[in-house]
Amino acid sequence: RRIQAELARLGFRVCARTVARYMRRPYSGTPSPGGRQFLAQHSDEIWACDLFTVQTVWFQTLYVFFVVHHGSRELVHSRVTAHPNSAWLAQQMVEACGISREPPRYLIHNRDGCFGASFNRRVGSLGVRQIRTPVKALQANAIAERWVRTTRNECLDHRLIFGHYHLQQTVDEFVANYNRWRD
User: Fold this and answer.
1) Model pTM score
2) What number of other Cβ atoms are within 10 A of residue 176's Cβ?
């Protein structure tokens, strides 16, 4: 009745039943699951991806892009580049899905500028729903952040990296060892 009165003051003649029809009805079901419960229920359908940087001996900054499967914590894909952009990241996601691997239902990544329009289009065409983490919330993509820490602590902190191909070879060896150890 209050909304009907307000509309009448604005010059709109509306019946109270019409207003009631468009009012939001109270929710009588169970509340939606929280974040932890969602991750537990869908862990086999979720991948997480991110980038981290590595400095070479010659002070060149290289970027390592990787994709981790949430359920098994297996590293699905990793590649190294000196200049990450949206098109390159999109191509890496297509390669991660490949022929023998089904694309995930959900992909968790941060709000980095590298994940631009080209990436969004390509991942969307694969049928993957993107979940972007909140700003400065590292725990929202904890599995990916944990993999970065493990890679640095167990591999990259103990080696001098000379260039792009050396870093790619080092990461590939570590990934093979990491995935074999996870079995």
Assistant:
1) 0.80
2) 11
